[in-house]
Amino acid sequence: MLNWPGQPYPLGATFNGSGTNFALFSEVAERVELCLFDDDGNETRVEVTQTTAHVWHTYLPDVQPGQRYGYRVHGPYDPANGHRCNPSKLLLDPYAKAIDGEVSADPALYSYTSTEDGVLDDAEHLNTDDSAAATMKSVVVNPFFDWGHDRPPAHEYHELVIYEAHVRGLTMTHPAVPEHLRGTYAALGHPAIVGYLKDLGVTAIELMPVHQFVNDTHLQDRGLSNYWGYNTIGFLAPHGAYAAGGTRGQQVQEFKAMVKTLHEADIEVILDVVYNHTAEGNHMGPTLSFRGIDNRAYYRLVDEDLAHYFDTTGTGNSLLMRSPHVLQLIMDSLRYWVTEMHVDGFRFDLAATLARQFHEVDRLSAFFDIVQQDPVISQVKLIAEPWDLGSGGYQVGGFPPLWTEWNGRYRDTVRDFWRGEPATLPELASRLTGSSDLYEGGGRTPSASINFVTAHDGFTLRDLVVYEEKRNEANGEDNRDGESHNRSWNCGVEGPTDDPQVNTLRARQQRNMLATLLLSQGVPMIAHGDEIGRTQGGNNNGYCQDNPTTWMDWDLDDDNRELLAFTQHLIRLRHDHPVLRRSRFFTGAPTQEGGLPDVAWFDPSGEVMDSAAWDAEFARTLMVFLNGEAITEPDVYGERIVDDSFLVLFNGHHEDVDFTVPASTYGERWSMVACTDPEVPVDDADGILTAGEKISVTARSVLVLGRPPLEPVAPPVTEVR
After folding, report:
1. pTM here?
2. Which has the closest alpha carbon to 383: 483, 253, 486, 272?
């Protein structure tokens, strides 16, 4: 086989239309073999002799797309000093753009031997069994794809409604999707799924991990699987099991086709990415890639014990964020997904770990510096899960200005208010208005707050109102896994019931939390299926349940359809009214001389809230005025925005409460535009209220009143000199 010197850049396997260049970084390697596999699994080894700045490279003019390959790295195996090279282990290319096969439960994957006395982790007990038959293979891909006129939707943050979804969970049972496509990228791009998302009104889909991940063998032993996918092994490769047509590069083409179709529907694609750890686990884990290539360059090790990993993720290892090679890998991966796969943004799992150059979380760490100056990554959506499991890891509100964050305090506050916790009004007001207490001081906007009530991790929205105790027995851990403090309320009965009053309340509570979410400033995120009452039967940790427990059930009953219609109505209301999705924080003051404030708060009597009302420990009611004529930000053409104004009435009390419409200065006539109690008429003549009029608001419900702009007030004239 012809073997030319090749180039050290780009890293990975790069097909140029004729042959393929291979480049692998390893500072500790003494020798590197490139291993090629045919369809029968026969292996051909090619000696890589060229090195440039610790990059081993070669060009093979005969290698075409679809070729499977891996590496064997010869070098020190000295765990006490952090080195774990073992040429008997076939290694995945860290820059592989596609990966074929699966990892099996084979002892050959491990670099140590095990005895009756326990595990021996030293050079004397090196496991030299060949792992090639038990592991995955990297694949050379064809980079060429007809994108046509594809362009990113490029929605502003405040225009987003994010839909968190799982490739399989969303599509596995949809009756209009052909069975052979279900659970794949092709299914996500199917007209039935795209049409559903479009009708729902979402403008971005946030996909749970689609980087190539490993199906943990300990889960397979229990008849389970890694459903969520937070166990990455290939940061540039789309997960092969989500491809309908094969895993020899077809997954790349199918993913691109899915993105192109979603873009045509004006829906952005955001990826949930896991750059904080890999699937190789702790020192007892398998040798699949990074560990055998250059362990010390890729992983954080315990300073005083280099045989062990410093873990802030709860997975056994953490990537070494102060290593230039780790930073290069992450940035190259991010750029690849934007420039080659056309995705629109990223949600970073356990993002606080990315800020740990040493032991503390540092918002000025090298990773954030690099992102800030990168001309590609700095221009896409960046969403942080602003915590990890290490000391000082809870960093809500602590990320730099380019970043948005999953607002965990929003989730907790909304849940607490609707389950009747005391003293929640001041906190609720902050969350409704964009969490300025968390974000304004850093020069950020309400869009920095990604608001959510539920996500993949925890109860679904329906389970949040049905269960107070988790039901995770099916996970095989004796119900020990998953969060025990869920801030949930079962409405008086634990689990499903035939009691019509309880079920009516549960339906209203789901609407209450969806309404709160979609009427709040910031960016709303809906977990897939919450809009149709998806349940996991009380399992709040579905990470290993790739079955109907976690899949959406598309067989909707009347209650599901009503909840879906309500959600669509609220999303449409949000899209239609800029005052519900401002790009700047409220000030509480008028924007025009003699005008009304941009936001005002009232008690049920229609009087402006005073400190006593705010501080009342058991207060459960709140009315907020949102002034559509006090929006200070212009539209995209620089024109002043004038919108309808709204009164949003929150009754968290267990009984109906009479609210009085505020004085006529805020508006003479108001119409009902939404209510979480389906018995209340909206959008008809009976739904008109006048200033000073009383209305009974149903126990535990939200009522939205709206009015058109008052007589327009001319904007102040600025003299140009």
Report:
1. 0.96
2. 272
